[in-house]
Amino acid sequence: MSQQVDVQAEQTEQTIRESLNQALYEELERDDSVILYGEDVAEYGGLYKISEGLYEEFGDDRVFDTPLAETTLGGSAVGAALAGARPIVEIMYADFLPIAGDHLINYAAKMYFNYGDETSVPMVVRSMYGTGDGHGLHHGQSPEAWFMNVPGLKIVMPSTPKDYKGLLKSAIRDDDPVLFLENKMRYGESGPVPEEEYTIPLCETDIKRRGDDATVVAIGGMVYEALEAAERLSDRGVECEVVDPRTVTPLDTDPILESVEKTNILVTAQEAPTFGGFGSEVAAQVIDDAFFYLDAPVKRVGAPFTPIPFAESLEEAYVPTAEDIETAVIDAIET
Amino acid sequence: MWERMTQDVNVDDDTARRFLEEMLRIDIFEEETKERFGDGEIPGFVHLSGGHEGSHVGMGAAMRDEDWLAVGGARLIGQYIAKGVPLPEIMAELYGRVDGSNRGHGGQMHVADVDRKLYGHAATIGSGQNPAVGLALAEKVKGTDNVAVTTIGDGGTSRGSFHTALVFAAYWDLPVVFVIENNQWAISTPAESLSPDSLSDYGDPHNMATESVDGSDVEEVYRAVSDAIERARNGEGPSVIESRVVRLVPHFEGDKETYRDEAEYERLKEEKDPIENYRERLLENDVLTEGEIEDMVANIQDEVSEAVEFARESPEPEPEAAYEHVYRTPLYGQGE
């Protein structure tokens, strides 16, 4: 758990949607150089209502709509950040991130490296992923693997309302370009959020549940599935440690290694296709640095290597779930 | 030369001398670059600016130090010089040395200098206009009257990213000046196959002010860009300028240019060289004498020699420098 949060502090129950809205509100209020823009984020409040009320509060100098062109959303954020603003841009669906990809990969990620001085681009690109709502091929893909191979980008993928708020505030204050990925299927999840102001540092892996029998490293929305699987496994006498890296790149690997050294079992869980994904990198890190602690082959839970299908029956078969994680843990333990 | 009509000089004598001097600086620096590249001292590959010098200098002179230049296209060295990056820093960067403008991280295509308001990340052609929109946006948010000038070649105008930048600049009514350096060649593909009569026409659907000028004439570019900057500063929004230049060099050093017509190439060298033409013009108008120009050339040659010496003496980066400057905020695994 983050050191910045006093566990004794007063907490209220909040949804992820509310905590994100609050984070944006607080940062817009704290720092005049913060601007928020994107498609339908102003009066409309964002397609998922994350920026609701901010336009009314801060006016159209700080919160404004744009034409539909992710290329310029990405590129203008790079320029604005270089010239002293702290832009937060919303790319409505993560599926559209490749349209801005040139500016994220070739520009934002390389600016600090290329200038070679203290020049940096403090920008946040918020975008939504998440499968299970029948939105099909282009409205729910998990994009982290597309970008985690890019040095210079930070990719943040929180799970709980508290993490979403604390990490978004840190992302806005961070001097590096941050891709902040929000699971649109989880906006309604609620949980305790400190009433007092707080931030959570980027690049710090969190342990969401303690356990000695198996390590489940889950990212984003899959943390909820991992916690559910852990509860079921607990009923069967298997105690899982649920590890939530929260930041995909750069990855804080030590807590993952320490957990595997204790449990000797590793299962990874992600919503994206398994092949070439986040779980593969976690597995590789563990094989590199903790191989002899493993009692069984690593199990990776993720989507099959196929596009997100539309038909309800197909989508249901596609989305990785708590049952998949439960099965993977049992398989590993019984190996 | 005698058959040419004498053209007036429409700027004051000091400005005219500076124009010629700056164009010669680009030319002499690049001739030296070509030599040093040919000798294997400069690694990678280099793109030179021959034929674009008037456009670069006219544009640079029209800008204030506080105005941003987001470079694009392939003819970049002349733009770095026109924006005031010191020659030794550019040369050391071409050499990939620690005292280069980017400490050897960038090279010829990526010279960047935030203190001189140079946005220099240009190699995915046609993209740089989008950061330029963001630079102008931030200046507007901050309440300054600074302008962002951004360059692109004719080739880059075919990329959608150029057009989305126009859409946003118009939508937000930002102080951006788009300068299209049309040298008629996207490597080997001629611009005449593009449909607009002038590439500045791309601004028309957005109701932007547009102008197409002879980019080989430093004074024409200076006037057109100055007008556009003044409009932008006064809140009259973005402009698109086509600067019609000629490419008097290969796309990059080593390009055999088999696609070019020999006779036409020779004619362009004879008639459209911005430096030679302006030199003649200043002599004919008694702004400078042959002797003064010789002194000017000699001084610049000394400057360039010093730049080469500076680059040669600057150390190569230590291998670990490849891992520095990836993240601004210290992180796990980043050595902090």
TrEMBL record, chain A:
Record InterPro entries: THDP-binding, Transketo_C/PFOR_II, Transketolase-like_Pyr-bd, Transketolase_C
A biological process from GO: organic acid metabolic process
Superkingdom to which the source organism belongs: Archaea
CDD domains reported in the protein's UniProt record: TPP_PYR_E1-PDHc-beta_like
Pfam families the record matches: Transket_pyr, Transketolase_C
Alphabetical UniProt keywords: Oxidoreductase, Thiamine pyrophosphate
Protein name: Transketolase
